[in-house]
Structures are given as structure tokens and as C-alpha cells.
Amino acid sequence: MNGERRSRRDALRVLRDLGGLALALGGASACRKEMTAFSCVESAGLAADDASVRATLAYMEPAVDKTRVCASCQQFIAPPTEGSCGTCKVLKGPVHPNGSCKVFTAKPV
Amino acid sequence: MPGILKTVAVGVAAVVVLGAGGAGAYVHSQTAAFDESMEKVYAVPVPAVTRSTDPAVLARGKHVAESVAACAATQCHGADFGGGDAIDMGPVGLLTGPNVSEGGLGAAYSDGELVRLIKHGIKKDGRSLRFMPASDFCWLPDDDALAVVSYLRSMPPVDRPNGMMEVKTLGKVLDRKELFVMDVARRIDHEHPLQGMPPAPTPEYGRLLARLCSGCHGEHYSGGKIPGSPPSVPIPSNLTPDDTGLKSWDYADFARLLDTGLRKNGKKLDPFMPLGAVSKFDDVERHALWAYLKTLPPTPVGRR
């Protein structure tokens, strides 16, 4: 009887430990996601005129209106690998897929 | 099923399948050619220009933008340049002139890039415009092109989002078949850009002005259905001196049409016709356009 209770206790402990491990792994994964987030707002190195155009056209990231993000815009040139900055046919400098600006033109669906 | 009927049925099915496959391959080759052409980067240098604030230049720019180039028409970029009304051409495309004011794409372009765009149909990135009929007014003298840019720059910025701009499959195929202009820069001779003459009430000047009409009325100006257009798009009239066209018209009839939108028979023009732009043609431009239309060979309606 005692042995049976102990084994049930042991099983519960294993489950608890597994749960903790899962939470820890989930947390680590979330942290990793956070660590791989990137920004494309940096416009250092651009000519003054080009930087001024970015400001005039109110380039921002992330977009306030999630239906009008750069990734859904005809002017956007996607990066070769996911998780990095793309470029734009209108604005000079790096452009985030989730960014936006005033000259958004929706891609056909 | 008797043997002969079965053979016929199989034969018909084979023809249908082969025909559909061939049509699909043809459409694919045409759309691929269109897409490839639109990716071409034109090596046309950006001209060094200096915009003007001279009231006379701005007035000329306003006139050209509102009339012979029609940039400020509601179907193009709108009177405030903040973007035009959408033109729904059904399977051909959904075409909306973007916001080109300083609150929109205009802010991203230098003055020289805008002059190049007007004269060559080339965007900032060196690729062709879509649909904007620069090939119809690329003849504008450099001074007029710069006057338009100077006027545009004198206008306040407009904060309005761009509408949809989509060239659909049929639009791409028609462009490659030379039945509809979508790929604009392909139609322009970049090596030898046209330089129009000073305005004069002559057929030669009218021939240049008339190019703007050709997109709808056809290269021979005989009207008829625009290829691929849906029923919502009206059928353009025959502008040649044919029985089915303007044979019985005189200049007064033509001028009244431009002023009021009323045909000789008293019927009103469809609002699809950019009356806002043509009504602003001045006397010299009206006489020039009329003089040219009278020189056209009479052509039955619909020969485009």
C-alpha cells in the first residue's frame, strides 16, 4: 500500500517537474523570439535628402494600422531571408516588413 | 455508345483539353513577358532642373496639368494631386492614380525625377510606370514639363492614402498585344525624346494634343469598345469625319461639346469622359485639336 502511494507521489513529482521544464522551455523560446526581433529604423548613412524623405513620409515601425504594413505594400522589396530588413522602391534605407509609411499601396490579393 | 460516337467524343474532349492547355500557356507567356518588361531598369539620366516660383510659369503649369496632360483630372491624380478616383476596368485592372502631392509620393521624388517621369514614363527606381499615359504627353516641351512640376510643388501636401493599383491578367495580355497601354516606358523613344512645338492652332499641334484621346478612342480615333473593358465602361465615340463619327459636325458643335458635355444630338457625354480636362483646353488648343481631327481619314466606328 505504502509502496503504491509512494509510486503515485513519485509520478506526480515527475509530472510537476515536466510541467516546470515545459514552462522554462516556453520562456526560453519567448526570450529567443524577443532576442531575434529586429529594427529597421536606423537611417544613419543615408543622404540628408533621403533621410528627410523617410521623415516626410512618416516611416514608422511597427505600423499603427496592421492592415497597411510594408509587407502588404507594392513598393516593398522583401529581404532574401526572413527576419531581416527589406527595402523599398520609394524610400531609401532599410524597411521593416511590419513598418508603414504614407505611400502604402496595397498589393493585390 | 456506338463506336463512332465514342471516337468523336474522345476527339472533341482532346481538342478542348489541348485548346485550354494552349491558351493557358499563351496567357502565361504573355504575363511573364509583361512582368519581365516591368522589371526593366531604364538608363535614362535624371535631368538637372530648377523649379520656378514665377506666377506665369505656375499658371502655365496649372493649365497644362488641368487640361492637355490631365494630371489633375479626377480620373488621374485629382485637382489637389492627392489621388484620383479608381477606374474599375474589370478583368483588365483596377487603376487609381496615387497621391503625388508633397504629402504622398511627390515627397519621395526630386524635381528632376518628376520631369523624367513626365517625359519618359519612368519611376524613381528607374522602372516603368503602369497605365499613366506619359506616352501620350511625353511630347510636352521641357519647359512645360518643368512648369507642371513647379505647379505641383506649389500645392499644399495632401494627407490621403493611395488607392488600389492592380494590373490584372487580361490587362497584361492586352498590353503585350498592343491593345492597351500598361507598360508605359516601353512605348517611349528614350534615345530621341520628343520636343513639342509651341502652341498653335494647327493640325500638327493638334496631332500631339490628340494623343491623349487615343487611349480610349483608339490609335485611329474611330472609337468602339475598349478591349477587355467591362460593360460599366462606356463605348468611346468615333472622332473621325465618318458618317458614324463627326462628319456632320462643325467647330461650334465641337466647342459646345467641350464646354457643356453635350453632343450635337443633345445627349450628354458619359462622366467617364474626362470633361473636366478637355473643357479647360484654351482656344488655340481647341482649334488645333479640331483641325487635326478633320484631317483624319473617315473610318467606320470600332476600327480603333
Jot down its keywords.
heterodimer; A: 109 residues; mainly alpha; High-Potential Iron-Sulfur Protein, Chain A; 2 domains; 2 helices; 4% strand; B: 304 residues; Cytochrome Bc1 Complex, Chain D, domain 2
Based on Cα principal axes, name the global outline of chain A: elongated
What global shape of chain B is seen? globular
Strand content range of chain A: under 5%
Q: Tally the helices of chain B.
A: 10
- Summed over residues and divided by their number, the pLDDT of chain B gives a mean of 92
CATH class of the largest domain in chain A: Few Secondary Structures
Q: Largest chain interface and its two residue counts?
A: A-B, 15 and 20 residues
> What order do the helices and strands of chain A follow?
HHEE
| Cα separation of the termini of chain B | 49 Å
Q: Based on the structure given, which CATH architecture of the largest domain in chain A is correct?
A: Irregular
Tell me the fraction of residues in β-strands of chain B, as a range.
under 5%
Q: Quickly count the domains of chain A.
A: 2
Please describe the biggest sheet of chain B, giving its number of strands, its sense, and whether it closes into a barrel.
Answer: 3 strands, antiparallel
Helix content, binned percent of chain A: 40-55%
As for the CATH topology of the largest domain in chain A, it is: High-Potential Iron-Sulfur Protein, Chain A
